[in-house]
Protein 1
Amino acid sequence: MSLTAFYALAAFTLVFALFAVTTANMVRAAFSLAVTFFLIAGLYLLLGSPALAAVQFMVNASAIPIMTLFIIMMTQSRRSAAPRSWQVGVGFLAAAVALVFFRSAVVHGEGRVAPVSPEALGTNLLQAALLPFEVASVLLLLAMVGAIVLARRRAG
Amino acid sequence: MVTLGHFLLLAGLLMAIGLYGVLTRRNLIAVLMSVEILLNAAALAFASAAAFRDPHLFAGQVFALFIIVVAAAELSIGFAILLNVYRTHGAVSDDAIGEMRG
């Protein structure tokens, strides 16, 4: 696994994520979010799990930004107001606290990755993780029905 | 050589960025987008820990997969609620829904 590819992907991921949470233009934020998730799919490829990369590309890098763009247009919120001054302070503080917590998670160790084939992952998903898999499908069905019921215009 | 620490540091930085977005964004759609970044950081941490430590038990990859599923469900419900907020208040910013303030 090459260090150059990791650093390039990581740097662009962070830049686009930062742009997505700071820009006032919501459409640009949604596209920037899509690029962030696309780059994270690349990181999953580096980690040797192409199945996760494919799911990340199809769900997070394609479907979710499209849904976000739809909702941005439907609610006519092209722009996000600038944060209040106390919000910026609280945001920086929380980010710093999160980083301090994560600093202890940075471990040193071997840099060897064993790739996982999509077949093996799928077999495991339908054998060892069968119950969570079914629960997840019920959750998705509930979310779909719930979203339709919530977003439907009331008659009369 | 890329190690697990590199990936965990990246996930931590992504998490900090998402947290900053959740706390500073005033448009509620943008808040949900920041929550998406948080969830993706968590999924990345799970997947990297799985790839470096435990590639044949699949628990990390399966967790990352389920995080993506839950994120999609959460986002669709959240957007449906925001659509109702827009219909009743005419905007989806945080100062449009301040009537619960004491």
Protein 2
Amino acid sequence: MIKFNKKRSSRSLPPVSTASLPDIVFILLFFFMTITVMKNQNLLVENTLPTATETEKLDKKDRIIEIYVGKPTNDGNANLGEEPRIQMDNKFITVDEVGDYALQALTLMPEHLRRVATVSIKADVGVKMGIIEDLKNKLRKVNLLKINYTTNEGAVLDNL
Amino acid sequence: MKNHRVPQEVNAGSMADIAFLLLIFFLVTTSIENDAGLNRLMPPDNNEAIADIKERNLFEISINDTDQIMANGDIIELSSLRKNVIAFIDNGGLLVQSEEYCDYCKGERLADLSEHPSKAIVSIKSQNNTSYPVYVAVQNEVIGAYNALRNRESLRLFNTTYEAINYDYYNDGITNTQKEKLKERLEIIRVLYPQKILEPQTVNN
């Protein structure tokens, strides 16, 4: 026993093997690759979503029409103003154009999905209801009636 | 002689660095998209007159420009809204003798609240300067009230919550016969507590 101990202490500690480090990192990498979705739109407006508790998961991506509403983020140009704007397809549009753009997005969908298309309204917490109501009316005009107020998960009292 | 040599091992030391670079690239470029929200179905755009609704069957929620919430004539806090909506829907105020008496309702059966859950209508009004988060919160509370009632009935009838059935129904890994059964159950509960939420046009008087 004594002899054994003596022998151990005389040797220096073996180095920790780092051979499995790449594997660990690759697992992490694949994890992130699978759970994240590439942003397909460049956000031009501020977009902090309100919170809600009774949320339902949105349908698959291929039947969703996204509309962003919010104050423009002034990336270096202050002439966009402070009023909330509507963003679809990577550009600002006016309320009157919402119907046209929504229909255009609808025609890009495969035919069997058009009936179940949902409009996801991603509005910023700083937005007032006036613009949202206008938006909803325009969507009703083009018969897109399924809407989704997209929210984050969280207590509603945070909204006040 | 050459063939007997052990082939030289490739140095894998920098593999970790490469993987780390990739990992950091994905961390920076991607964002976790939130894909959940409150689903609503808007009424079609036509100007048909709505059938007469008795005043007791309508629960009016209005949110004004300063985000105060008024429900059936009283200014209330958001936190007590859900309780009030549940009391309204679940009231079941018809007399026991009447044909449409709601035998599954557990409400107080008051004379000034709804007659039957299938007749109860919740209306949410907002004004131009109402802030959007408050509106979403009110929508959330109303949907929450319906979900609470549906869960209760679902637990009583099928021993699982409505949300669980709904979740399973939209799950891909189930057979068609299971799906049929779940659909049947959803329908039964939706008939007991149909969601009737009106969103009238904003009118500025």
